[in-house]
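User: For my dataset I need records formatted as: sequence, then structure tokens, nothing else. Please produce one.
Assistant:
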Amino acid sequence: MRANFRLQRLFIDQPLHAGAAIEATKEQVNYLANVLRFGEGDPVLVFNGRDGEWQANLTFATRKRIQLILVEQTRAQTPVPDLHYLFAPLKVGRLDYLVQKAVEMGAGVLQPVMTQHVQGRITSLERLEANVIEAAEQCGILSIPRVHEPQKLMDLLERWPAERRIVFCDESEAGQNPLPVLKDISERKLALLIGPEGGFSQAEREHLRSLPFVTPIPLGPRILRADTAAVAAMAVVQATLGDWA
């Protein structure tokens, strides 16, 4: 069942079931009462990434306290997508965009990787998780992707499970069309690797190409910014091998 975008959606990190009365957080109270101007009995949709989506009605216990009274489940829980998204951190504003778009495009795991030419850094996993939740709220997503601690690229590759193929977006790859390469991949457990703004080092590129579980692909004739490449690569992978196919 598709999401109902007529109602406001909220992520609630508590068990959801019919009749539950859930206290809204301070931030949610301010958003619902002061920004959206909601009143007594107004409906919203809530989800927690585990128990599906529920309609809840607002009850104002006081001017500064709102309870969400769960009425009925509107959508059953969906599984977390299996696509792993490996990315070198970008500068803050573009990193927020990259994370949100990865969630919208169907990533199930977000794994920051530290490369030799990386220019950004992860200062707070909580910020990444907040961007994940915001994207899920806005786009009707029920399953919340997992956010992992950053790892050095070489360390990650050393422990990588060989049954999950890494699609490696390599700006130096010969050719312009990624589709013929992707169509030859038989595995359905996939990860997508996007490099930093400065690109991969020659040593990183050579090491990636030497691994049997890595497939390099081009992304067309133009040089793309890292955040643009992320969206383009997710689109072609989902269209050929993922949940668009």
